[in-house]
Specification:
Number of strands: 13
Distance between the termini: 31 Å
Structural class: alpha/beta
Length: 304
C-alpha cells in the first residue's frame, strides 16, 4: 500500500516506525523518566522509536507511558527501567491505537501488568491492529514488530486514578480528538500533564479523529491548569502555554481553511494542496502529513 493510498484511506502512518539512535532517558521530574524520540519517518533503523515514551516510579510500583513502537523498542524501554529500579511494573498505559504508542506493550507481557487504555481502544485495535502489525513486520521484520496487546483495564468517561504507592496518577478518557481513543494522564504529585498525542510539539500534528473535537479537548486540557507537559512528540518536557498555542493555531488554521475551501466549492484534492500552507515552515514533516490532515478534515467538515 502506498503512503498516499493509506492516507486517503484514513490510516495514520505517522505512527509506523523507524530507530532511535543514541536514545537517552531524561528525568523530567522526581521519578519520571522520558525518552524524546526523533522526528523521523518509518525505517528499520529506529525500531519504531518515533514517539516519546517513559515511566513513572512510585513507592511500590512502576507505571509505563507509553511502551514504544515495536517489541524491540519496548524491550529497550524495559531495560532502561531495570537500570533504575527493580520495583514491579504493574501498569502499562496505551494512550491510543497508533502503533508508535502501542506495539511496545508486548515487551512487558512477562511482568503481568494491567494494560490500561481508553474504553474505545479495544475496538480500535480490533479494527486496525492486524493491519498495523503486518506493516510493522514489513518495515522492521517480524521478530522486531511485536504483537497487538489489548487493554485489560479500561478507563471510562468519568476517568480513573492509579496509586503507585504514595503517588497518584489521574487518567482521563477523551472524546474523539487526535483519535477516537485518546487517554491522558496527570501526575498529581508534580502537576505534570501527559497528554500523549493530544499535544504535538515541532512535529506536525496528525489528525485521525475529529478536528472540532481535538480543539474542544485542548480547551479541557488547558483548564486543568498544568504549567508543564510531556508531549507525545517533541521535547521530553515543555511549557504548556506556548506548546498549546502553537498546536491550537495549526488546528484552527486547518479548520478555517478547510471550511473556506468547502464553502467555495474547492475539491478535496485541491484543498489538500492549498489549505494551511501558511504553517509549512513551522513544523517538521509538514509535507508528509498536512495533506492527510486536510483530507481528514474535509471529509468531516463537509457534512456540518
Amino acid at each position: 500500500m502506498s503512503r498516499r493510498a493509506a492516507l486517503i484511506g484514513g490510516f495514520c502512518l505517522c505512527c509506523l516506525p523507524s530507530s532511535t539512535a543514541a536514545a537517552t532517558m531524561t528525568e523530567v521530574g522526581p521519578g519520571i523518566f522520558i525518552r524524546a524520540a526523533p522526528h523521523e519517518e518509518a525505517a528499520a533503523a529506529n525500531h519504531g522509536g518515533i514517539a516519546n515514551i517513559g515511566f513513572v516510579v512510585g513507592r511500590d510500583s512502576v507505571l509505563v507511558t507509553d511502551s514504544g513502537g515495536s517489541l524491540t523498542d519496548g524491550e529497550w524501554l524495559r531495560a532502561e527501567i531495570r537500570k533504575r529500579t527493580d520495583k514491579p511494573i504493574r501498569h502499562v498505559l496505551i494512550t491510543h491505537v497508533h502503533p508508535d504508542h502501542s506495539f511496545g506493550a508486548a515487551a512487558f507481557a512477562a511482568d503481568r501488568p494491567a494494560f490500561v487504555g481508553h474504553h474505545a481502544l479495544r475496538s480500535a485495535l480490533e479494527a486496525r491492529g492486524e493491519f498495523y502489525q503486518k506493516r510493522l513486520a514489513e518495515v522492521l521484520g517480524a521478530e522486531s514488530a511485536g504483537s497487538v496487546v489489548y487493554p485489560t483495564q479500561e478507563v471510562m468517561k468519568d476517568g480513573a486514578e492509579i496509586d503507585l504507592g504514595g503517588r497518584v496518577v489521574r487518567l482521563s478518557a477523551h472524546a474523539t480528538a487526535h483519535t477516537d481513543c485518546d487517554l491522558s494522564m496527570l501526575d498529581v504529585e508534580t502537576g505534570l500533564l501527559f497528554p500523549a498525542d493530544l499535544l504535538f510539539v515541532n512535529r506536525v500534528p496528525s489528525l485521525d479523529g475529529s478536528l472540532p473535537g481535538w480543539l474542544a479537548e485542548l480547551d479541557k486540557l488547558k483548564a486543568l491548569g498544568a504549567s508543564r507537559a510531556v508531549p507525545g512528540h517533541g521535547p521530553p518536557i515543555v511549557d504548556m502555554a506556548p506548546a498549546m498555542a502553537d498546536l491550537t493555531r495549526y488546528l484552527s488554521t486547518l479548520s478555517d481553511g478547510t471550511r473556506k475551501a468547502i464553502a467555495s466549492g474547492v475539491s478535496i484534492e485541491d484543498a489538500a494542496r492549498s489549505v494551511a500552507q501558511s504553517e509549512r515552515d513551522r513544523w517538521v514533516l509538514f509535507d508528509d502529513y498536512n495533506e492527510r490532515n486536510v483530507i481528514q478534515a474535509y471529509k468531516e467538515l463537509e457534512w456540518e
